Amino acid sequence: MPQQDELKFGAHNAHFEPPDTLVVSFNGLINMDDVKRTSQLYRETFERHGQYYCIADIGRSQIDNAGRKYLSDNGRSEWFHAVIYVGADVVQRTFGKAIALAMLFTGKTSFETVFVATLDEARAWVTQHRSTAAQRKAG
């Protein structure tokens, strides 16, 4: 997959894969500075590319309650086609769903929240979802 604009912040990194996918890999503790940078990155990606898929590899990371609340309060559902979490454990799945629910209450649109085991599965899900969405538009 072609990628551009590799961004590193703390132990984490992100890149955009055209036409419409942001891939973010988190490693270790996600502190409040990282959370704020992530929220800013999500907003900037929307402003630059429009609505997009966000693949968040969170299997090797941890975020505290304050960070989850910040993401819930500052994220917007209209930024995303879907958020695909990679490698989430049971606790991370619960909090991922809670963040999505909070964004839905503050946003104007809905989006899907998906959990998969690998980055390959995430990319395959995006490809399938993109194809289904295109068929709906055409039909």
TrEMBL record:
Annotated protein name in UniProt: STAS/SEC14 domain-containing protein
Organism: Pyxidicoccus fallax
Domain of life: Bacteria
